[in-house]
Amino acid sequence: MSYKRFLFLCRCLRFDDRETRAERRMIDKLAPIRTTFDLFLKNINQNYNLSEYTTIDEMLHPFRGRCQWIQYIPSKPAKYGIKMFALCDAKTFYTSKIEIYVGKQPPGPYEVSNSPIDIVKRLVTPIENSKRNLTTDNWYTSIPLADYLLQKKLL
After folding, report:
1. CA nearest to 40, candidates 95, 115, 121
2. What is the dihedral of CA 22, 24, 29, 30, to 10 degrees?
3. Buried b vs exposed e over 79-97: b needs ≥16 C-beta within 10 Å?
4. What is the pLDDT of residues 85-114, one digit of tens each?
5. Cα 60 from Cα 57, distance rounded (Å)
6. DSSP per-residue letters across 61-108
7. In the chain, which stretches have pLDDT less than 50?
8. Spatial separation of the C-alpha atoms in residues 63 and 71, rounded to whole Å
9. What is the pLDDT of residue 55?
10. Which domain of life, per UniProt (predicted)?
11. Residue 84 confidence (pLDDT)
């Protein structure tokens, strides 16, 4: 496929309905890509089983386009981008669950807490009671979270 053909197809591709986007955006900042992103997450979980060693961390996907939830993190190599939290396999680096950080969501079904404890609780739901080893960095470390993970049989 030629480069010009690729650019043409990228301009023509749409993954959501522009006419209903304004209504959906009133309850969800991630509305333009929510359906596609949820399908992507479903396919990720169907095609791979995590090993006994997992990790949770944040990543910054470099991006400088137009987007409401662009983050500036001066300590990262790419200072601007889309911040994501991910549950990954520590052996193969396969990403099992991703959550895009969009800031505070409007009131509605997608309004969730962005505290480190709540992020970890949402990310570990697929591996609860599996006796896997979960590694996190110090941003996620707290005694209530450690108690929760022990209760869910995550070491």
Report:
1. 95
2. -120
3. ebbbbbbebbbbeeebebb
4. 999 998 988 888 999 998 888 888 888 888
5. 10
6. EE--SS-TTEEE-TTSSS-EEEEEEEEEETTT--EEEEEE--SSPPSS
7. none
8. 9
9. 92
10. Eukaryota
11. 92
